[in-house]
Amino acid sequence: MPLSLENIEINKKISILIADDHSLLADALSVVLSSEPDLVAEVCGTLGTTLELLQHGSSTFDIVMLDISMPGMEGLVSVKRVIDAAQGAAVVVFSGTADDDFVWQAIELGAKGFISKQHPFKSFTTILRLIADGHEFIPLSLSRRGALNSKIQSQIDDRERHILQFVAEGKTNKVIALEMNSTEGAIKMKMRTVCNKLNAKNRTHAVMVARQKCLI
Predict the structure, then answer these.
(1) Which residues form the Response regulatory domain (predicted)?
(2) In degrees, to the nearest 5, what angle opens at C-alpha 40 toward C-alphas 36 and 41?
């Protein structure tokens, strides 16, 4: 049965932290959300303030809308810090230009999805209620990319992952062969197969692609 507002019981205020330094957008969105009978929103504009509110603030939040380019943010490391500090709140990536791979890696770390700033304001209330009800929100375009990544992950076996990890550590084929009780020629062949599966130009490129797709 498709999810809709009729499927969701609204019985308490959903508290939302909009962590975004674009004050015009954040303040306007806060007004729109707080005008709903079951939603209340608060705004902050830096990573430091976000962490302070989550860890020591007087409010308890259900959802954190996290802008990945506000002051203090340093990529996935900062996303993980917010997720760890959120005390059970659903953290969603909130951006207009997020890279697909970045979003999927954030989801791997525990984020509950991605909300584009390009969405019309009227759609935010529905999306946020779904997230508060325990669902992830992943746009269709990202879902397709995720399916592709899952297919690639299923094609890479455990032995190939181990080889990729050794390559990422800077080890030569000869050293990897000794580590894996194999031959240098066999490792070269395996690495060639991995490059073909990942559509990589060489072993360095293969490691980069593998990291982007959370294979290692």
Answers:
(1) 15-132
(2) 120
| pLDDT band, residue 144 (cuts 50/70/90) | low
Please report, as a single letter, which amino acid is at residue 137: F
Question: Rounded distance, CA 184 to CA 178, Å?
Answer: 8
The predicted pLDDT at position 7 comes to 46
Confirm if 90 and 61 have CB atoms less than 8 A apart: no
Q: How many angstroms separate the first and last alpha carbons of the chain?
A: 36
Question: Shortest CA distance to 65 belongs to which of 31, 44, 102, 92?
Answer: 92
In the chain, what are the domains? 5-142 (3.40.50.2300), 156-212 (1.10.10.10)
Please report which confidence band the pLDDT of residue 201 belongs to, taking 50, 70 and 90 as the band edges.
confident
